[in-house]
């Protein structure tokens, strides 16, 4: 049985990183004058996002990459803590596979040095 959001939040699991488009929407929502519906405004923002050049998107891409770095660092620390606490079922599948691979390598190295 896997834990749901509130339980993981209590355990301090980091929030997922924010995408570059989400950063763009955050900035655009500050400019919204509340005329019309949110749906229509978000649709307009989406259309505008598609029309931006790569150079114009670079600011948002850098912010998203920085947040991804924060997330990766925080997740590695959180997963190490969950592993130390005996909660391997909470680790991402890839992390768990990496951990098992590392343990096998350590066993081989120990057996080779005997």
TrEMBL record:
<feature type="region of interest" description="Disordered">
    <location>
        <begin position="94"/>
        <end position="114"/>
    </location>
</feature>
<keyword id="KW-0539">Nucleus</keyword>
<protein>
    <submittedName>
        <fullName>Transcription factor A, mitochondrial-like</fullName>
    </submittedName>
</protein>
<dbReference type="InterPro" id="IPR050342">
    <property type="entry name" value="HMGB"/>
</dbReference>
<feature type="DNA-binding region" description="HMG box">
    <location>
        <begin position="14"/>
        <end position="79"/>
    </location>
</feature>
<keyword id="KW-0238">DNA-binding</keyword>
<dbReference type="InterPro" id="IPR009071">
    <property type="entry name" value="HMG_box_dom"/>
</dbReference>
<dbReference type="InterPro" id="IPR036910">
    <property type="entry name" value="HMG_box_dom_sf"/>
</dbReference>
<dbReference type="Pfam" id="PF00505">
    <property type="entry name" value="HMG_box"/>
</dbReference>
<feature type="domain" description="HMG box">
    <location>
        <begin position="14"/>
        <end position="79"/>
    </location>
</feature>
């Amino acid at each position: 049985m896997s834990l749901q959001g509130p339980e993981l939040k209590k355990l301090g699991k980091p929030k997922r990183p924010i995408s570059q488009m989400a950063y763009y929407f955050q900035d655009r929502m500050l400019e919204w004058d509340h005329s019309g519906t949110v749906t229509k405004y978000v649709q307009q923002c989406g259309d505008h996002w598609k029309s931006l050049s790569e150079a114009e998107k670079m600011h948002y891409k850098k912010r998203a990459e920085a947040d991804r770095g924060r997330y990766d660092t925080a997740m590695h620390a959180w997963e190490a803590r969950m592993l130390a606490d005996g909660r391997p079922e909470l680790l991402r599948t890839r992390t768990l596979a990496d951990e098992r691979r590392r343990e096998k390598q350590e066993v081989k190295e120990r057996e080779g040095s005997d």
